[in-house]
Amino acid sequence: MRIGEVARKTGVKAETIRFYEREGILTAPPRTRSNYRDYGPDEAATLTFIRRARDLGFSMPDVRELLELSNEDDRSCAAVDSLARAHLDQVERKIAALQIMRDELSRMIASCEQDTISDCRIIDTLAASHGP
Amino acid sequence: MRIGEVARKTGVKAETIRFYEREGILTAPPRTRSNYRDYGPDEAATLTFIRRARDLGFSMPDVRELLELSNEDDRSCAAVDSLARAHLDQVERKIAALQIMRDELSRMIASCEQDTISDCRIIDTLAASHGP
DNA sequence: CTTGACCTTGTAGTGGCTACAAGGTGCATA
DNA sequence: TATGCACCTTGTAGCCACTACAAGGTCAAG
After folding, report:
1. What is the pLDDT of residue A129?
2. Which candidate, B32, B52, B37, places its Cα nearest to that of B6?
3. Strand D: which nucleotides have any atom within 7 A of a protein Cβ?
4. Residue B129 has pLDDT above 80, yes or no
5. Cα–Cα distances in Å, from A31 out to A7, A21, A35, A40, A42?
6. Mind listing the pLDDT tens digit for each residue in B111-121?
7. Were both Cys, which of A8, A41, B26, B115 would link to B20 (CB 3.0–4.6 Å)?
């Protein structure tokens, strides 16, 4: 399989696949006579794994560790579990922070009465300090 | 006021203030004899404005525009309003995306029974495709 | 006269790609 | 056979909003 095909199959763009190879997260595949990368199903599976982990918001270092762990069949999955829990925690913190932003933005917008800038509650709120 | 003091007053780090000056978002203040930046209350107010807008998640281009608009007292604040609404929309989209991540992560973690990696539901879920 | 806190400049690094330039390859069609 | 087009190759630079660091200048207190 050439890079374009594996890109279509896994949903990871060709440029990104090459980037992963440069970063050492994906091992370099063999090359065809004309120097094209030649992928097998294993690399495709790894890319799918990476994409799914990235879609769930895991960082590249996390993905790297998950990939390493996934190859050690006999070890306990406690490390995987704790990594996932730590990430969930981060996601929840981020949601909380964004909800605070959202609430303040909503309040700000609701208080604006579409007058001139000099009376604008939005500009006021930013200039002075009304919020937290 | 030297840069350290205005940094303390506004909560914007000195390095960041210099960065804003380089980027042209904050006008360069006069210098003392010894070439130190010498800020007045106006610059401090601008920095507070920037910090509050950034804390609310506005991008630097947005902040730039908000700053420009804030100087045009007589214009209608419709532009401010629509900028803020567009940003609120973005924040809400981000929250929704993170909630989907959170839910899938929770499900994944809940299904793991702390066995060996080869039976690990978390690794399974990443490798194959169970979610959206 | 030295210490230490502050300031100056410039450059490079962060994360995770993405875009682009300049050229080589492979296959179908005229 | 020539040509066009999609695909591949490498390397480099850009994105965002800082942050870190190096190497040096300034100033007041002890």
Report:
1. 54
2. B37
3. 7-10, 16-21, 25-27
4. no
5. 16, 13, 5, 11, 15
6. 988 788 888 88
7. B26
Fold adopted by B1-73 = Multidrug-efflux Transporter Regulator; Chain: A; Domain 2 (1.10.1660)
Q: What is the CATH code of the structural domain delimited by A1-75? A: 1.10.1660.10
Q: Are A112 and B69 in contact (CB under 8 A)?
A: no
| Secondary structure element (H or E) that encloses residue B81, with its range | helix B78-111
Distance between the alpha carbon (CA) of A6 and the C1' atom of C21, Å: 24
Q: Which of residues 86-125 of A touch B (CB under 8 A)?
A: 87-88, 91-92, 94-95, 98-99, 101-102, 104-106, 108-109, 112, 114-120, 122-123, 125
Hey, what are A97's tokens?
């922070």
Q: Are B88 and A109 in contact (CB under 8 A)?
A: yes
